Amino acid sequence: MAKSEVKFIGKWSSPYAMRVKIALNIKSLEHEHFEETLNPKSDLLLQSNPVYGKVPVLIHHDRPICESLVIVEYIDETWSTAPSILPSDPYDRAVARFWAAYIDNKWFPSMKSIITVEGEEERKPYFEVLEEVLERMEDAFWKCSKGKPFFAGDMIGFLDIAFGCFLGWLSVIEHRYERKLLVEAKAPALVKWAERFAADPAVKGLYLRLISLLRFPSLFRSSGELLLARNRIWEWEFPVLMMLFTCMMNSVKK
């Protein structure tokens, strides 16, 4: 397959783009990567996704496919040789899709709100939603995995990708607000699953790049430089980077 057949428009910090990268890695697909700045949005992105103008976008034979989970399914169906991403059983596929939709409806909006609202009281209900999701996903893991390492069984699959792409940002939030959410006392299976997921070859490099934000001095030497960079940062990513810069400065003072 020629490299130019597959193009990927993504953003390194986007959990949704990470889903597609993991799927591409699982299938060992060569592709041309276009890193999106989003402010301003590139002509390629606007032409490829004129409806939403968002990443990720996969372009295959000059035809764009949008929305992360739609793209993951497309990759699995188009390059159907093993390893498979979606379950082969129709019921198992339906269950995986159900929980993936649940995650998108509950997890990311609450995580984003924790970052953007001000004050502990305002954050409290969103932390509670995350705790509820983790409780439900702990139960779902036991049922879906059937005693195996991942939601999908022996290897990373659709639901692993849908949920696991948020682990990096979860670590960032836990670090910043000094509040552990994914703990063995409440979700022992998920804690072990998260460790296996982050260490998987299809994921490891992507996960470490996001976590490296916690070592912030190499990116911005002062809050002034961070402010100057704002125009080049995704609209909701800026509060996260500001939060991480503050966290880094506090750790230096200690």
Class of secondary structure makeup: alpha+beta
Cα gyration radius (Å): 18 Å
Strand order of the largest sheet: 2-1-3-4
Please bin the fraction of helical residues. 55-70%
Counting DSSP H or I runs of 4 or more residues, the number of helices is: 11
Distance between the termini: 53 Å
Q: What's the order of the H and E elements?
A: EHEHEEHHHHHHHHH
- Low-pLDDT runs of 5+ residues are 214-236, 242-254
Please state the overall shape, judged from the principal axes of the Cα atoms. globular
User: What does the main sheet amount to?
Assistant: 4 strands, mixed
Round the mean pLDDT to the nearest integer and report it: 85
Let me know the number of strands: 4
Share of β-strand residues: 5-15%
Could you explain how this protein is built, in words?
Helix content is 56%, strand content 7%. The termini are far apart. The protein is built from eleven helices and four strands. It has 254 residues and is an alpha+beta fold.
Secondary-structure map with pairings?
Blueprint: E1 6-10, H1 15-26, E2 32-35, H2 43-48, E3 57-60, E4 63-66, H3 68-78, H4 90-116, H5 120-145, H6 158-164, H7 167-177, H8 188-199, H9 204-211, H10 223-228, H11 237-253
Parallel strand pairs: 1-2
Antiparallel strand pairs: 1-3, 3-4
Helix pairs in contact: 1-3, 4-5, 4-6, 7-9
